[in-house]
Design a protein that fits this description.
Oligomer: single chain
Largest sheet: 6 strands, mixed
Number of helices: 8
Helix content: 25-40%
Strand content: 25-35%
Strand order of the largest sheet: 7-8-9-3-10-11
């Protein structure tokens, strides 16, 4: 099981409270979209799951294992099996595409890393780009390279922080299709951050709506369409 739970999370940035008693459930093997306006706490949720930040109180649990409890970091980030695709992608500009994809495998001293890179690149239809540098790729190709770099490590969970925000509609559809295919093939648990309600309602199995650090609504797209709360009515056109 790769379900994720944030339980009674309280977190501050300096003197500003981000969360106060926030609890979320992200089901295993599904694509859950974390939807909310800028500043609602979406990226902070991802960082807490990935271990890039530690909450002041509360628990983060993955597959029944407690990752953090309060400020007690029980499982370090590199042992969580969590992939993270940042909005700016963070591809190494001086490395070719294959080197970017292979980097994590080489760190882990995986001996057949070249074959794994080739297999993943072919799955995402970027095998012809392996000898290019990130600066030579289109926006969509860069997105696919970043996704390949995460998926090749066979994570339990993949976190995506508005990775398609700067793509046109056609490229978004292509990249989303590849992500959904990977979810099915690898049984991934996906947590996808977005501020675009149309995107969330079109791709998600489940939607969590954040408003000012609080959970405003949760459910499938169908459930939220049938019974929107006041916040959803203000935030989106259903």
């Amino acid at each position: 099981m790769r379900n994720i739970a944030l339980i009674d999370i309280t977190h501050y940035y300096r003197n500003k409270k981000v969360f106060s008693g926030l609890s979320l459930q992200i089901p295993s093997g599904k694509l859950t979209c974390l939807l909310g306006a800028s500043g609602s706490g979406k990226t902070t949720v991802l960082k807490l799951i990935a271990g890039l930040e530690v909450a002041h109180s509360g628990k983060v649990v993955l597959g029944g294992e407690t990752l953090t409890e309060g400020k007690d970091l029980r499982v370090p980030p590199h042992q969580r099996g969590v992939g993270y695709i940042f909005q700016d992608l963070a591809l190494w500009p001086h490395m070719k595409v294959w080197e970017n994809i292979a980097f994590g495998l080489q760190v882990k001293k995986v001996t057949d890393y070249r074959q794994k890179v080739m297999t993943m690149a072919e799955k995402l239809q970027i095998g012809h780009l392996l000898e290019k540098y990130p600066g030579e790729l289109s926006g969509g190709q860069q997105q696919l390279a970043a996704i390949a770099r995460s998926l090749v490590l066979e994570p339990k969970v993949l976190l995506l922080d508005e990775p398609l925000a700067n793509l046109d509609v056609k490229l978004k559809k292509k990249v989303i299709a590849q992500v959904l295919e990977a979810k099915s093939a690898q049984g991934l648990t996906l947590l996808y951050v977005s501020h675009d309600h149309r995107e969330a309602f079109s791709i998600a199995d489940r939607i969590l709506v954040l408003r000012e650090g609080q959970l405003a609504a949760a459910g499938s797209p169908e459930e939220l369409r049938k019974a929107p709360n006041d916040y959803l009515q203000d935030f989106i056109e259903l």
